[in-house]
Amino acid sequence: MDTTFLIYLVCFGVGLLFTIVSGILGGVFGGHDAHGGVADTHAEGGFASNEMPGFSPLSPTTLATFVTAFGGLGMVFHTIPATSRPWFSAPLAALGAFLAAAVVVWLFSAIFMKTQASSESRVSTLVGLTAILNTSIPADGVGEIAYVQGGSRYTAPARSEGGRPIPNGSTVKITRIIGAEFFVEPV
After folding, report:
1. DSSP string for 110-148
2. pTM for this one?
3. Which of 47, 56, 129, 158 is the most exposed, having the fewest neighbouring CB atoms within 10 Å of its CB?
């Protein structure tokens, strides 16, 4: 076994061993990383350049993917006669490893972007929405409305515009929001 093949073999082994040990110990020691799924899989999150949680290009998973792919592809390219010399096999293995790591970053980023979606209501989009009064609003008092946004039902404290009383069960329109209080008027 020549030195070049041995280097590729060590890279492949170290990367694969790191991945296996991280997978096993990640479930044992927990930590502050993202856990999810039925099998309680483990992946680390980081912060991308836009300061939103996501998957870092320099995460241990990405680096392990690069090292493992470099070693594995290096061994493959080293055994092919046309690319067996190190100055052919190493750049090809590095390029392939870079592409494999890029695919891992893209895949995990896409997964994290989908799972970062929130069902939390966006207050700025509520003005003009209709709601049902759960609790009547007394004159110059506070009641409670229920509204549906994005398929989720929410409740909020509400005051009537002009301080007029509105009976329970009335359909109202949200006219403005100040702090946590919604101002409504009968429809």
Report:
1. HHHHHHT------GGG-TT-EEEEEE-B-TT--EEEEEE
2. 0.51
3. 47
